[in-house]
Amino acid sequence: INYQTARFEASYGTVAQLPEPATPEVAVTGRSNVGKSSLLNRVFSRKDLVKVSSTPGKTANINFFSVDGIRFVDLPGYGFAKVSKAEKRRWADLISGYFDQERSFNLVIALVDIRHEAQQLDLDMIGFLQQSELPFVVALTKADKIGRSKQNQQVATLTRQLGVEREQVVVTSSATGEGIDGLRRRIAAACL
Ligand code: GDP
What we know:
One of its GO terms (molecular function) is GTP binding. Residues 22-192 form the EngB-type G domain. One of its GO terms (cellular component) is cytosol. By secondary structure, the chain is of the alpha/beta class. It has a single domain (3-191), classed as P-loop containing nucleotide triphosphate hydrolases (Rossmann fold, 3-Layer(aba) Sandwich), CATH 3.40.50. The chain has helices spanning 36-44, 85-100, 120-131, 148-162, 180-191, and strands at residues 7-12, 25-30, 62-67, 70-74, 105-113, 136-141, 169-171. The radius of gyration is 15 Å and the shape is globular. Bound molecules: guanosine-5'-diphosphate (GDP). Residues 30, 32-38, 52-53, 56, 77, 141-142, 144-145, 173-175 line the site of guanosine-5'-diphosphate.
């Protein structure tokens, strides 16, 4: 996959607007502020193709990126507390509306912050992916923020809490680049 070709395709505020799936799709999901924009930029080897928001939870859109014939779907970050109930509803509808469509779900990358216990919304998301039998990988983010032994401890804890296999988990850091190649290998395996 030639990540040099990464470009922004379009942004959608409702699922009804989404174009038909014509290419393999990789969807990326996680709590707001989990590090989704930073990770995507790292995967794309681009500094700021995906806007890293200083205000978490600001993007309530589904953003499409196209990379060498593969479409990356950046789903709105969930769980941001400081928005209205109506806005939360809209985000939830966007995410579930996307997954309800007939699309080519080659891979879902579910981001979870390595530093914390699994949050209810993360459990809900992973549970949904398992129930729907969608192919997914859990990317634990911000690994550089804790030491190696704490990382190993958190991998064990989160793997158990989320009910996933160790092979489904990739430890990542957008600060150091750890795990980015591993993630790219999963993407290639799922799409090529
Ligand atoms: P998003 O809301 O999920 O798109 O998260 P962002 O990518 O905007 O990141 C949220 C905050 O976490 C920003 O201040 C980032 O600089 C920071 N951040 C994201 N990834 C990492 C990481 O791997 N390591 C460190 N140290 N900080 C990160």
